[in-house]
Design a protein that fits this description.
about 240 residues, alpha/beta, 7-stranded parallel β-sheet, Rossmann fold
Length: about 240
């Protein structure tokens, strides 16, 4: 079997970590990065290597074009050509837009959306040359419908969804798929600010009667990377019927 390589941004914990470990469990070589959680990222690397898979780790900000260049170049040098890119790096900001300053807005857009441009720019030329590849963007249901008090986050994910659809059309002739997973309430640290009462109220709104797991996102990403060459330009909601 030919070994494939995946790069995953924001992979030190939560959804990113689950995606990395899911791909490694399927025998992929894995490149992982995060902005500052070095110890957590090295722990992910240790788990991947324990499975018997190659892993390249990188500390850097994918919202910075030069860091994205260094990450992809280093991963390509160690692991070989990139077969799949998973854009998962992201942050949230809770609060009214009227209380948000320009720096906070720019940080969310740069981290959640500009990072996707930066990383895609690095992998697309090789994918086009090889006439093969997949790009998977980890989005949110709030990118589909918007969320009160999360205007910047919703805008960044809405932009990611539009970019997914546009880029899919550009790259389809080169046999490269581009899809997004619009996550609903996934049980990660990003939601741990909720009180037990708020968490219970949220679960009551979800027809599946529970939050999703990072591992479920990982399994869907793996399927999109390898099993559906005719499925592209789609925003796939993974939300238990919530939205």
């Amino acid at each position: 079997m030919i070994r494939k390589t995946v790069l995953i941004t924001g992979a030190s914990r939560g959804i990113g970590r689950a995606i990395a470990e899911t791909f490694a469990g399927a025998g992929w070589a894995v490149g992982i990065c995060c902005r500052k959680s070095k110890e957590d990222l090295l722990d992910v690397k240790k788990h991947i290597e324990a499975i018997g898979c190659q892993c390249y780790d990188f500390i850097g900000d994918m919202g910075c074009y030069e860091d994205a260049q260094r990450f992809v170049a280093g991963a390509r040098r160690v692991l070989g050509p990139v077969d799949c890119l998973v854009n998962n790096a992201g942050i949230s900001h809770i609060g009214l837009l009227s209380d948000m300053d320009a720096g906070e807005w720019n940080e969310v857009i740069r981290t959640n959306l500009t990072s996707v441009f930066n990383c895609c720019k690095q992998v697309i030329p090789d994918m086009v040359a090889r006439q093969n590849g997949s790009i998977i963007n980890i989005s949110s249901v709030w990118g589909n419908c918007g969320a009160s008090c999360e205007a910047a986050y919703s805008a960044s994910k809405g932009g990611m969804n539009a970019l997914t659809k546009a880029l899919a059309k550009e790259l389809a002739p080169s046999h490269i798929t581009v899809n997004a997973i619009a996550c609903g309430a996934i049980d990660t640290e990003m939601n741990h600010f909720l009180s037990e009462e708020e968490r219970s109220q949220l679960i009551d709104e979800i027809p599946a009667c529970r939050m999703g797991t990072p591992e479920e996102v990982g399994r869907l990403a793996l399927r999109l990377a390898g099993e559906h060459s005719y499925l592209t330009g789609q925003i796939i909601s993974l939300d238990g019927g919530w939205i």
